[in-house]
């Protein structure tokens, strides 16, 4: 069963207390961050603290490590350290194209790779990045993207829409996971709820988060609701009954249900099962 990624919490790898605390947090996955959340003079200590933290049990939570870019003085050592650590994926920042994945893949033979989608060039190369054979997931880096675009922050995220849409199309074309960017105002619950709803409507699997207070909102926003689950069950039941009578279409609540809707309904039930399994 595919793992859910409703909530993906960044934790600075320099913060041993927060990494320990995360073992009990209701997050689907964790990004242990060696990059932007760690100051330059704390990079080496953070790498050691991360190695210690990863000896602990994180239960069903996905363990993703964001390394520094290979163009920095820390990137290659980060990648070599990750090759020896128990983790589920390595997240590469500032990816511009598939060559950036090749270079990290050469240092880390087996672990799945994820790409930060946060440069204008990455938006234009999204299809090639998504098609890289080692890529498992994409994370939107909307802060860096806004910086490079020179765009203004807007509640409706209009300036982000072209990039978000291109990355979603690319990820879905290749069957990759894709997680939305962070919401910086971590005490603004209403703003976060709105942005999660927008990301969910667009098709993202979940949202990256910066504070534990954001977890419950993202987990709720990206999970199927009880109504959606009930409707999915009724659609499957109605379609199977129609199919048994040689008909290719059923009607539920005044709307047609065809094969493709049943596929969506089954995927939704699988997602609900995967979420329920996280809670056990
Ligand atoms: C934003 C913060 C600096 C706020 O920290 P703080 O002031 O300590 O918050 P609180 O006092 O409310 O914390 C309460 C307790 O929760 C723990 N905590 C806080 N944040 C986390 C976390 N992320 N994971 C786990 N636990 C966390 C505190 O330790 C407190 O615990 P306790 O002491 O037991 O009471 C801080 O939240 C933070 O550093 N957040 C992460 C920031 C980060 O990782 N930034 C980089 C990723 S975002 C990014 O790079 C975007 C992307 O690349 C782009 O371009 O868009
Ligand atoms: Mg960034």
From TrEMBL:
<keyword id="KW-0460">Magnesium</keyword>
<keyword id="KW-0479">Metal-binding</keyword>
<dbReference type="InterPro" id="IPR011206">
    <property type="entry name" value="Citrate_lyase_beta/mcl1/mcl2"/>
</dbReference>
<dbReference type="InterPro" id="IPR015813">
    <property type="entry name" value="Pyrv/PenolPyrv_kinase-like_dom"/>
</dbReference>
<dbReference type="GO" id="GO:0016829">
    <property type="term" value="F:lyase activity"/>
</dbReference>
<keyword id="KW-0456">Lyase</keyword>
<dbReference type="InterPro" id="IPR040442">
    <property type="entry name" value="Pyrv_kinase-like_dom_sf"/>
</dbReference>
<dbReference type="InterPro" id="IPR005000">
    <property type="entry name" value="Aldolase/citrate-lyase_domain"/>
</dbReference>
<comment type="similarity">
    <text>Belongs to the HpcH/HpaI aldolase family.</text>
</comment>
<protein>
    <submittedName>
        <fullName>HpcH/HpaI aldolase/citrate lyase family protein</fullName>
    </submittedName>
</protein>
<dbReference type="Pfam" id="PF03328">
    <property type="entry name" value="HpcH_HpaI"/>
</dbReference>
<feature type="domain" description="HpcH/HpaI aldolase/citrate lyase">
    <location>
        <begin position="6"/>
        <end position="212"/>
    </location>
</feature>
């Amino acid at each position: 069963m595919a793992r859910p990624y409703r909530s993906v919490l960044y934790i600075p790898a320099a913060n041993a207390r927060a990494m320990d605390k995360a073992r009990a947090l209701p997050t689907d996955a964790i990004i242990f961050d060696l990059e932007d959340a760690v100051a330059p003079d704390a990079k080496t200590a953070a790498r050691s603290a991360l190695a210690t933290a990863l000896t602990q049990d994180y239960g069903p939570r996905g363990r993703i490590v964001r390394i520094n870019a290979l163009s920095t003085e820390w990137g290659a050592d980060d990648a070599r350290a990750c090759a020896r650590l128990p983790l589920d994926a390595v997240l590469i920042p500032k990816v511009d194209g598939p060559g950036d994945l090749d270079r990290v893949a050469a240092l880390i033979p087996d672990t799945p790779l994820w790409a930060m989608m946060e440069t204008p060039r990455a938006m234009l190369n999204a299809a090639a990045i998504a098609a890289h054979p080692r890529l498992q997931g994409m994370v939107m880096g909307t802060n860096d993207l806004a910086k490079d675009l020179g765009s203004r922050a807007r509640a409706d995220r209009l300036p982000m829409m072209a990039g978000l849409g291109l990355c979603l199309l690319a990820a879905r074309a290749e069957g990759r996971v894709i997680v939305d960017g962070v919401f910086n105002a971590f005490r603004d619950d209403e703003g976060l709820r709105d942005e999660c709803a927008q990301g969910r409507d667009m098709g993202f699997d979940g949202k990256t988060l910066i504070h534990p207070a954001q977890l419950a909102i993202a987990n709720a926003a990206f999970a199927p609701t009880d109504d959606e689950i009930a409707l999915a069950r009724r659609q499957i039941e109605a379609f199977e009954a129609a199919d048994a009578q040689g008909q290719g279409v059923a009607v539920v609540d005044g709307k047609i249900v065809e094969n493709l809707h049943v596929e969506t309904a089954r995927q939704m039930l699988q997602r609900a099962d995967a979420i329920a399994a996280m809670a056990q």
